[in-house]
């Protein structure tokens, strides 16, 4: 499918301000805990790296990453999720925070919660930059949320369409070009 950038939905400044607030909330919540931020590749990379820099310096925090693919077409998740890269570390007894770019149908995060819960972390929570509630198919708890957005396909700030546009510093909506 061919896409074209349509309009900016969330600006650089809005992202910066919100990430700062989230960093403060996460620092307060995890003070005295052993936090593992689990970034979901590749979409959450920019978000995780900016968020981490807004955390208190004295927080006990490490990073780990998972990569999952959902079977389906470019814009529709099928609900069947496959782990392409698993965690490097054992999260037993740790406070795990899943850091995700978008919660759309909710199927990916729901699957990740199911998988990670079995590894006996002390706590398991979700931080999502974007939330598209209109598209939800399964309820998932979002403990730390960046922005609620309408049902639009978006790119930028780590998020792609067919591998492109991750480098954009803001969140843009795209439209499909008819062939
Ligand atoms: P879910 O399983 O339907 O919640 O889908 C979550 C995943 O689908 C996200 O992590 C994204 O990788 C992808 N996704 C959902 N909406 C968009 C979008 O608007 N643009 C790009 N990727 C998206
Ligand atoms: Mg993703």
TrEMBL record:
GO biological process entries: GMP salvage; guanine salvage; hypoxanthine metabolic process; IMP salvage; purine ribonucleoside salvage
Residues of the Phosphoribosyltransferase domain: 13-160
Entry cofactors: Mg(2+)
Keyword tags: Cytoplasm, Glycosyltransferase, Magnesium, Metal-binding, Nucleotide-binding, Purine salvage, Transferase
Keyword Magnesium: yes
InterPro entries documented for this protein: HGPRT, Hxn_phspho_trans, PRTase-like, PRTase_dom
One Gene Ontology CC term in the entry: cytosol
Entry EC no(s): 2.4.2.8
Pfam families referenced in this protein's UniProt entry, alphabetically: Pribosyltran (PF00156)
GO molecular function annotation: guanine phosphoribosyltransferase activity; hypoxanthine phosphoribosyltransferase activity; magnesium ion binding; nucleotide binding
Annotated compartments: Cytoplasm
Catalytic reactions on record: GMP + diphosphate = guanine + 5-phospho-alpha-D-ribose 1-diphosphate; IMP + diphosphate = hypoxanthine + 5-phospho-alpha-D-ribose 1-diphosphate
Entry's family note: Belongs to the purine/pyrimidine phosphoribosyltransferase family.
PANTHER family tied to this protein: HYPOXANTHINE PHOSPHORIBOSYLTRANSFERASE, HYPOXANTHINE-GUANINE PHOSPHORIBOSYLTRANSFERASE
Record protein name field: Hypoxanthine phosphoribosyltransferase
Source species: Thermanaerovibrio velox DSM 12556
């Amino acid at each position: 499918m061919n896409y074209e950038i349509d309009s900016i939905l969330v600006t650089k400044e809005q992202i910066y301000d919100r990430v700062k607030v989230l960093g403060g909330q996460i620092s307060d919540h995890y003070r005295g805990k052993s936090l593992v931020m689990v970034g979901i590749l590749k979409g959450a990379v920019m978000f995780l790296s900016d968020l981490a820099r807004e955390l208190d310096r004295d927080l006990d925090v490490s990073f780990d990453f998972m990569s999952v693919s959902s079977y389906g077409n470019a814009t529709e998740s099928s609900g069947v999720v496959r782990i392409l890269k698993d965690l490097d570390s054992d999260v037993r007894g740790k406070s795990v925070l899943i850091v995700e770019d978008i919660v759309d149908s909710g199927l990916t995060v729901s699957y990740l919660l199911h998988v990670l819960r079995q590894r006996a972390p002390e706590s398991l929570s979700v931080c999502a930059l974007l939330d598209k509630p209109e598209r939800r198919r399964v309820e998932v708890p979002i403990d730390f949320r960046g922005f609620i957005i309408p049902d639009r396909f978006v790119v930028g700030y780590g998020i792609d369409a067919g591998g492109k546009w991750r480098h954009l510093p803001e969140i843009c909506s795209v439209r499909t070009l008819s062939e």
